Input
Amino acid sequence: MRILVSAGPTQEPIDSVRFITNSSSGRMGFALAKAAVKRGHKVTLVLGPVSLKPKLKDVRVVNVRTADEMAEAVLNELGKGFDVFISAAAVADYTPEKTATGKVKSGKNLVLRLKPTKKITLLAKKSFPKVFVVAFKAEYDVSKEELVNKAYSKMSREKLDLVVANDVKKNRMGSTRTDAYILDRNRRVYYLTGGRKEAIAGKIVRFIDCRLAPELS
Output
């Protein structure tokens, strides 16, 4: 199969030197790409700005910076023919309405007007309904019930195939370990025991294989 993975944060410019971002390291996306290659898939990675530089053998990388660039790159790649899109990137939810040229002077209050960024998984499924779309849903300090309900709401709203949900208070964004729940369209919930992201990524890719390529499971 051909699998497209997105990873890392995005940077939303305030001016020519400042930006809004988050602490995503890209580790989960890297781990998913490696796991998919290991299982025999052809993989392309759309990657936001990260400091990690792991070796990604047999993975084609498309570098982007902003949420708009990531959305454009994902849709452009999907148009080339992919079976699966795994949206592991921590795309900024908001971006400044205007970006100042140069450097805004310091020492005074600065008011920013923000606008929502594009929902890439929603666009991907709407534009390419036959692609198997896997989204990640991160919440902070919520109960399992609330986490699962919010993940299902996203799945239903965007007509997704799988959602991987986790609480980033328990395992902070950018850490090497995580635990998560996989939710499918039949409202089944599968718990992925906490561990290194490489192990969790392997389980996610195998789960996808079980759905789409049972001979690989």
